[in-house]
């Protein structure tokens, strides 16, 4: 029966769960899959989530189905390992998130009014999550902020939590002043250990500036990465037209080509409809 299911093109979720079970079978499964554990699979889970985000950012809708499938496989993988250890099943996972969604949307699934703004809903959501944390005996303001989050994302969440109890600068001016202060401390740091610490402090405050400005720092940095890639590729193309590579060039020439690429982009943006 399991072989029939595995080879059923429209087998849906039961098919995927059976495939994962077979891959992990200690007698007949894949040696690589059998050797994995939660810690070894976790980096792939993070990577697949980023690939979903990348497909969305590129509006690569033809790729999105496959990327979502890769991400779904990660949940199935972790769940299969948990089931083998007697911890929980896939149905338990699905029921847990269903219970959470119902509890967090009383205005949809309960008696509360739906007549509220998106901003009010965010506030209500945070109050519900605070109650959930209290139920888990997470009493500290910063309790429950996952340590495995990307550092910029975790910084934003920590800062948001602290801001809710009044530990925050009132305006962006104070944050900008702090950035100048932290930049000077980076300049003054002498040892590698001190430089490491001060650089982290500078990044943390820059992230706080993004929060005050309503900017997603991860998205802003991804955009900056894309811009850098685009302009550097323009440098490579310009050099290739001269039968040269960056290794054959120097900083002055590449910097001039960078400025030229930047000027072209600005002109295109100005003339865009």
Structure description:
- The protein has 13 helices and no strands.
- With 273 residues, it is an all-alpha fold.
- The longest helix is centred in the first third of the chain and has 24 residues, at 61-84.
- The chain is globular and about 65 Å long.
- The termini are far apart.
- The model has no long low-confidence stretch (mean pLDDT 90).
β content, as a range?
under 5%
Secondary-structure-based class equals mainly alpha
How would you sum up the global shape? globular
In DSSP terms, counting alpha (H) and pi (I) runs of 4 or more, how many helices? 13
Helix fraction bin: over 70%
Give start-end ranges of low-pLDDT stretches: none
Distance between the termini: 59 Å
Order of helices and strands: HHHHHHHHHHHHH
User: How many β strands by DSSP?
Assistant: 0
Rg for CA atoms: 25 Å
State mean pLDDT (0 to 100 scale). 90
Taking the sheet with the most strands, its summary is: none
